[in-house]
Design goal:
It contains 29 helices and 19 strands. It is α/β, with parallel strands linked by helices. Bound molecules: (S)-3-Hydroxyhexanoyl-CoA. Pfam families: 3HCDH, 3HCDH_N, ECH_1.
């Protein structure tokens, strides 16, 4: 409960207009205390003859980020956000919502119940509940379609997308837009102007034609969801709710929505998505304590290949000035062409307008001389993955960059400690491991070498936020967090393939588990040559007794690198099409088995998933044990955002807790009877099982 010094509602009066400020910083989430106090304030206002109208606003720059997600795991306490919304809607005195900062979820639902809405142009309005496996439970599925029409409301609710104040005005979601300084005055004027007309019931935005269009749009979405291997219960239920909004009176629709919301709150998908949300928040906090980030405005990118170009675009999009460096004029032009073509595709698809592209490109410059980096605050090296090449680049950077500039490498596996030790300022060297395409993929592994300064780590986390990336701190080892774990569970898939499961069955089993693509389909997409290079690199350090499956090498030797060569594990007769099974690949696998004397055995899909997950979780536990990842939530965040792990399962560590760590350990122990080296259970996993603990409890220790 709030102390008397920290009321959740700040009430002031301005000439008969009562201003009620939501006051639960920083985001004014609608926790129980806030709902209770707001409900009471509205009841009092109804009876107070000095109050003629009410303005609802948010203190501290935000209206509200919606319900307090942490409360969903606890017993529900009235009043609900929906009850408060009903009171607002039924108020005989006009209520105007003044929106700035975020107005999301339950926050926007309160505003939807008001008699008018005024917002700032930059406000972010939306119903993002679906991203948490929920649906708007405070009347949003009923009031938004009534206000702006079902066809416009449907994508906003189904995708959980937010819109700016300007866009909301165009949709009819806001009645007016103004700047922050005048927001409250404008809302007060509006509340007075509404006078006694406020309580008059509002007509639906849709006529009969709109209603039919809405029903048709719902039918299309139902078909789309039915065709997906996995959709959230919330996605199906919210369509039912919007349909109810078109077919039933408000009161019945609200009842329907409340039941659907309760179903979503109880779903494992909600628990998984809420876990992923909080895991990201935890992972995103800089481990460098109070260290203050260095200022970054000018960035350099060395190397204009696919990765470097993507990094440059990400930085330009975030408002940074970028200098691109390449070794010669032709390579530089190729790099610039790549950047231009990324933007061209965005303009062609309508995601970006030509003026915004021009603005971003105006901050890009290019050079073949490293001296152009002399004023850079941060440089990211994205050249060929070779220690000697990288060492040369860092020697150049050491020579030309100003003192205090941050020197980052985008290597995926090289020893960053060695790179740092090779120059005169190891404290400024850090790993920024982007994922391809770097302007799209969310994950950013921030790899911290031994000598790095705290403020360099803090700057990297601040930069990630600016680039809208999801950062995870990683220690230095071959593959850091994600690629190190990936290598092991891919091996488990290879073993199963050699032992009798086809790559197609393995993909299908893991796609049913929730991956958008199974491991072999993914290998075809990324290019078989990439994995081939990794395997060649690791060959020297692979223990001679370790099992090694040669199928992938056999395909690469034939030039079958996947989609880009028209065949890999699958056949791709036409570009962009989903691959077809290839009998010749099955013959290659059969030949390998014959050579090794392996008799194929049948696999059930369930066993495929269990082995894959046991390998993944076991290596993840070793990554924790070695201090490469700080906490299980960081691994969940990395695997969900960079490796396609189904988000609605929360992440592999959450999955392991859900299945039960003793069950995972028992699987490992039984598989270890076949191959004691590969399946050796991690010490951490054994300890957690002994202590009856979980990865979730480990998270709480941080
Ligand atoms: C809902 O409304 C259901 C209703 O329909 C029905 C009701 C019946 N709850 O992200 P940040 C925490 S469902 C609890 O770093 P930003 C966050 O964990 C809700 N906590 O700030 C962090 O805590 P900590 C629908 C929340 O400026 C701190 O606040 N709403 C919530 O980068 C700062 O967060 C949503 O889904 C919450 N709702 O981004 C919005 N929101 O410091 C979810 C945040 O301890 N929130 N926290 O780590 C967001 O998307 C972003 O937080 C937001 C601000 C964009 C708002």
């Amino acid at each position: 409960m709030p102390t008397p010094e920290q009321p959740r509602i700040l009430a002031t009066q301005q000439d008969g207009v009562l201003l009620l400020g939501l006051n639960h910083p920083p985001l004014n989430t609608l926790d129980h205390a806030l709902r209770q106090q707001l409900y009471a304030a509205l009841q009092t206002a109804a009876l107070d003859p000095s109050v003629q109208a009410i303005v609802l606003h948010g203190a501290g720059g935000n209206f509200s980020a919606g319900a307090d997600i942490r409360e969903f795991g606890q017993p529900r306490q009235p009043p609900w956000a929906g009850d408060v919304a009903l009171l607002i809607e039924a108020s005989a005195k006009p209520v105007v919502a003044a929106l700035q900062g975020v107005a999301l979820g339950g926050g926007l639902e309160l505003a939807l119940a008001a008699h008018a809405r005024i917002g700032t142009a930059g406000a972010r309005l939306g119903l993002p509940e679906v991203k948490l496996g929920l649906l708007p439970g405070g009347g949003g599925t009923q009031r938004l379609p009534r206000l702006i029409g079902a066809t416009a409301a449907l994508p906003l609710i189904l995708e959980g997308r937010d819109v700016s104040g300007d866009a909301a005005l165009a949709l009819g979601l806001l009645d007016a837009v103004c700047d922050e300084a005048t927001l409250l005055d404008a809302a007060v004027r509006k509340a007075r102007a509404l006078g006694d007309d406020a309580a008059v019931s509002r007509p639906r935005a849709d006529g009969e034609a709109g209603r039919q269009a809405g029903l048709a749009a719902i039918a299309v979405q139902r078909e789309r969801l039915a065709a997906k291997p996995h959709s959230l219960p919330a996605q199906r239920l919210l369509l039912d709710c919007i349909q109810a909004a078109l077919e039933q009176p408000l009161e019945a629709g609200l009842q329907f929505e409340r039941q659907a919301f309760l179903q979503c709150v109880a779903s494992p998908e909600h628990r998984g998505l809420a876990h992923a949300f909080f895991a990201e928040k935890q992972a995103g906090k800089s481990p460098a304590g109070q260290a203050r980030p260095r200022a970054v405005q000018q960035a350099g990118v060395v190397g204009g290949g696919t990765m470097g170009a993507g990094i440059a675009v990400a930085m330009l999009n975030a408002g940074l000035d970028v200098v691109l460096i390449e070794r010669d004029a032709a390579s530089l032009q190729a790099g610039l062409d790549r950047i231009n073509s990324v933007y061209q595709r965005q303009v062609d698809s309508g995601k970006l307008d030509a003026a915004a592209r021009a603005q971003r490109l105006s901050r890009l410059s290019a050079a073949t001389d490293y001296a152009a980096l002399s004023a850079a605050d941060l440089v990211v090296e994205a050249v060929f993955e070779d220690m000697d090449v990288k060492a040369q680049v860092f020697a150049e950077l050491d020579r030309v960059c100003r003192p205090g500039a941050i020197l980052a490498t985008n290597t995926s596996y090289l020893d960053i400690n060695r790179i740092a030790r090779g120059i005169s300022r190891p404290q400024d060297v850090i790993g920024l491991h982007f994922f391809s395409p770097a302007n799209v993929m969310k994950l950013l592994e921030i790899v911290v070498p031994e000598q790095v300064a705290d403020d360099v780590v803090a700057t990297s986390f601040a930069l990630a936020r600016r680039l809208r990336k999801v950062p995870v701190r990683a220690g230095v080892c071959d593959g850091f967090i994600g690629n190190r774990i990936l290598y092991v569970y891919r091996e488990a898939a290879n073993f199963m393939m050699e032992d009798g499961a086809s790559p197609y069955q393995i993909d299908q089993a893991l796609e049913s588990f929730g991956y958008a693509m199974g491991p072999f389909r993914t290998a075809d997409l990324t290019g078989g040559d990439i994995g081939w290079a990794t395997r060649k690199r690791k060959a020297a350090t692979r223990p001679p007794e370790a099992r090694y499956v040669r199928v992938a090498d056999r395909l690469c030797e034939r030039g079958w690198f996947g989609q880009k060569t028209g065949r890999g594990y699958y056949l791709y007769p036409e570009r962009g099409q989903r691959g077809r099974q290839d009998p010749e690949v099955l013959a290659v696998i059969e030949a390998e088995r014959a050579e090794r004397g392996i008799e194929a055995r049948p696999f059930k899909d369930e066993e495929i998933v269990r082995r894959y997950m046991a390998a993944l979780v076991n290596e993840a536990a070793k990554v924790l044990e070695d201090g490469i990842a700080l906490r299980p939530a960081d691994i969940d965040t990395a695997l969900v955002n960079g490796y396609g792990f189904p988000r609605w399962r929360g992440g592999p560590m959450k999955y392991a807790d859900d299945v039960g760590l003793p069950a995972i350990l028992a699987d490992l122990e039984s598989y270890a009877r076949e191959d004691a080296g590969f399946w050796a259970p991690s010490e951490l996993l054994r300890r957690l099982v002994r202590e009856g603990s979980t990865f979730g409890k480990l998270n709480q220790q941080h």
